[in-house]
Amino acid sequence: MDIREDPADGRVARVSEASALRRMAATVERLSAELRRTRAAADGRAVVELARGVLVERLRCGPAQAARQLAALAERAGVAELELAADIVGRAAQDRLADAAGDGRGDGAERRPDTAGAAAGEGRRVVGGDGRVASAGEETWSASVRLRVAESAVLGAGDCQAVAEAVLGHALGPLGAVAVAVWAVGADSSLSLAGAAGFAVGEAGRWRYVPPGVPTAARRALTERGTVRIEDLAGAGLVSIGDRHLPGGRVVALAAAGGRVLGVLEICWPGPPPRRPPSVVRQVEALAELCAHAVESDALAGPAPHGPSLVELVDLADGLLDPALVLLPETAGDGRVVDFRLHHLNAHFKDLAGRSRASLTGARLLEAYPLAATGGGLFDAVERVHATGEPFRAERMALTVQVDDVPLTVTASAGLSRHGDRVLLVWRPLDETALLADLLQHAQRLGRIGGFEEDVTKGLVTWNSSLYALHGLATPVPLAELPAHAHPDDAAALHGFLRTVLHHRKPASTAFRLRRPDEITRHIRVIAEPVLDPDGRLVAVRGAYQDASAQHWTEVALSATRDQLAHSERLAAEQNRLALQLQQAIMPPAQRTVDAFDLRISVRYRPAEIEHLVGGDWYDAAVLPSERVLVSVGDITGHGIKSATGMVVLRNALRGLAATGAGPGQLLTWLNLVAHHLADHLFATAVCGLYDPDTRVLRWARAGHLPPVLVRGGRASTLPMLRGVMLGALAEAEYEEGRVELRPGDTLLLYTDGLVERRNVDLDDCVRWLVTASEAFTGSLERRLDDLLARSESDTDDDACIVGLHLG
What keywords appear on the UniProt entry (predicted)? Predict the structure, then answer.
């Protein structure tokens, strides 16, 4: 820590080491930026030097002349030398990167100069010192430049970490990506983070290894065997590196080489990935292929891969007792796997069509078994195992072969595993006897049944495998000893069962409680029938045990549920009765008409027709001590006793608060506090109005409620939708006030949704019905309310309330 004297007052000031650390950090950041720029320039220079080499070979000239020719061509075309160099390299290479960049293609890719002679009038673009092309004030790189510079950086990178940084900085960053992760795929389908760029500090350490089966974005690409676009990582139920700080969208592409998936390239966007044309998708896949070569190089530079050699794999196949084949991949010129060669068939292999092993050895899989290519068949499984390294096993797989133009299908169990770039296929055909035995075993497992046979003459008892697990024993139990393993209360029933089978020689069955050695009790049903010789003597007993525990406890639970349901029905009926009595006491179907200050107020209320749907609609109309008139209507969410009591609380609270002289907006603010804090979290909508007879102005506010309808001069319309949330939804809320000056002859209608709402009809259309119906009626206020209530088409079985105000 530095100690310095303040020249102003002579006091000693302590200068923190933090400032020195900040300066050091700034220096490190500056040097790192310079290093990145230097590396970018070096990568660009590598592309230029490669283009010069192409010109040397094509023009049969020296390096100096090629350099001058490249500069002259770029000057004539009005483009950067780096951009022209990238195009030259792409046209010469005709590789995956050239296809992705659109070099020499007419697929809508961006226009590029012709190396043979570009027109100078195509438009000149300014070139920066680092090789970037600035167009219309925005610095951009063409796809060709980005991909070629990225390729140069990848080839010069020492590891996958440098590859991730190069791919993000040169190719994907200009497209809007903010981070990149390169995953290596293990033989067990696990994922290892080989390189990452753009993520927060410490993220790489958290995601160094992902075991098989974890639902990550990279795993989704492996499962779907292709490029995957994920709009929202969390919304898709996936996790991945950076999900805390970069929870936006992802694009994940397989990094494959030679038909094998070696890794995954994961690209992060701050939001949903932008929709890109097919050319950009090809660019991403080309970059993923570059990453695959980097992952493969890292694997080769590390420890020797675990797995047998080809000779060892052949020896392994020969040591198996089941038919086995060793398959080698056959690739096309672009590295895609197109078939698999039958390299070796072990001695147990028998061809379904009767062909010899010698005639099949060396043949291609699709040539020997063309029907294996059918959707979801053997070839798809082999190709997937070879690509992902994830073992595959199927208890039943249909293997079909043509025999004299007739398809022969054999069901077999199959197993596939990858060893290096080879695939070992093991299968075991299931004959009819084995298939029937397998079906029987599954049937017994599903029915929780086990069979037995007891030889009475030899005293030999035979159980199938499921009975050992059922009884929890290692040795079979003779029927005569069965009571010793049962609950004492069931001994009489078992003795009767044994007497019927062993002495009366008749089939019988009984149920008992089996007491296992582990003190677990099971409810068992045993069925047995005697086997007699020609002389009628008992020689054996055959039968079955069935575990009926689940059925027993289901019956017990069902009985208890019936009792609980009957109790709940009685309780609900009592609550509905109380709620209905409370509702009828506070909210009678018709209230007396209020006449005050030339204002006439009438109310109509229709309770729900179904008693258990007793709701919480409420209304109020009263002249306050201030000679203003309070009018309100509301609707409690839900039904039953809670809604009915909540209605009483809010209605009485509003009437009491109105005596303070506050406006309707403030009254609803206070009422919201009552609903949220003092009334067990009630939720309700409401409209509150205060009418001043001196000015004939009605001030009103709404809390999530439908707007009132004003009828004036034979025309009806809704009042504006003032801002105001439902009561009880927020701890604190403010409500906007509106003003409407009533004129003689005006009628204002306040109502609840039970008057207008219909199923499968938009609520705005329901309100428009009320507006139209209000315009068509010209009678008195009371007859108007009766008419609206009678003509209501609401089908929600809810309470309906309507309050009418008419100024004479």
Answer: Hydrolase
Nearest to 47 by CA among 166, 175, 158, 202: 166
Alpha carbon distance 130, 127 (integer Å)? 8
AA letter at 598? D
Q: Say if CB 201 and CB 217 are below 8 A apart.
A: no
Name residues whose C-beta falls within 8 Å of residue 563's C-beta, 6 or more positions apart in sequence.
none
| Residue 178 one-letter amino acid | V
Alpha-carbon gap, residue 531 to 539, rounded angstroms: 6
- Domain coordinates in residue numbering, the chain: 172-301, 310-430, 436-547, 586-807
| 476 C-beta neighbours (distance < 10 Å), count | 16
Q: Which CATH superfamily is domain 172-301 in?
A: GAF domain (3.30.450.40)
Give 92's contacts (C-beta < 8 A, 6+ positions apart): 54, 58
- Residue 290 makes CB contacts below 8 A (sequence gap 6+) with 97, 150, 151, 154, 163, 167
Q: What is the CATH number of domain 436-547?
A: 3.30.450.20
Residues in the chain, overall count:
808
The string of pLDDT tens digits covering residues 593-642 is 888 889 999 998 887 755 545 567 888 999 999 999 999 999 988 776 77
Answering whether pTM is above 0.70, one says no
For residue 75, what are the contacts with CB-CB under 8 A and spacing of at least 6? none
Is the fold of 310-430 the same as that of 436-547? yes
Phi/psi of residue 274, nearest 5 degrees: -65, 150
Contact indicator for 389, 187 with CB cutoff of 8 Å: yes
Strand-pairing partners, residue 328, are 341
Distance (Å, rounded) from C-alpha 514 to C-alpha 244?
54
* Contact between residue 772 and residue 715 where contact means Cβ atoms under 8 Å apart: no
Q: Yes or no: say if 286 and 147 are a contact pair by the CB < 8 Å rule.
A: yes
Structure tokens at 453: 């046979």
Contact 262, 239 (CB under 8 A): no
Highest mean pLDDT among 129-133, 273-277, 549-553, 771-775: 771-775
What homologous superfamily is domain 310-430 in, according to CATH?
PAS domain (3.30.450.20)
Mean pLDDT for the chain overall: 78
> Comparing 222-236, 422-436, 740-754, which segment has the lowest mean pLDDT?
422-436
Q: Please check whether residue 419 is in contact with residue 317, taking contact to mean a CB–CB distance below 8 angstroms.
A: no
pLDDT, residue 358, reads 80
Residues in a beta bridge with 688: 632, 701
Exposed e or buried b per residue across 315-349, where buried means at least 16 C-beta atoms within 10 angstroms of its C-beta = eebeeeebbbbbbbbeeeeeeebebbbbbbbbeeb
| Burial readout 438-453 (b: 16 or more C-beta within 10 A, e: otherwise) | eeeeeebeeebbbbbb
In what helix (H) or strand (E) does residue 412 lie, and over which residues does it extend? strand 406-419
Radius of gyration of the chain (CA): 42
544-567 burial by CB neighbour count: b if 16+ within 10 A, else e? Answer: bbbbbbeebeeeeeeeeeeeeeee
CATH no. for 586-807: 3.60.40.10
The answer to whether the beta carbons of residues 323 and 344 sit under 8 Å apart is no
Q: What is the pLDDT of residue 777?
A: 85
Residue 654 confidence (pLDDT) above 80: yes
What's the 3-state SS for 313-358?
A: HHHHHHCCCCCEEEEEEEECCCCCEEEEEEEEECCCCCCCCCCCHH
The band of 126, judged by pLDDT with boundaries at 50, 70 and 90, is: very low
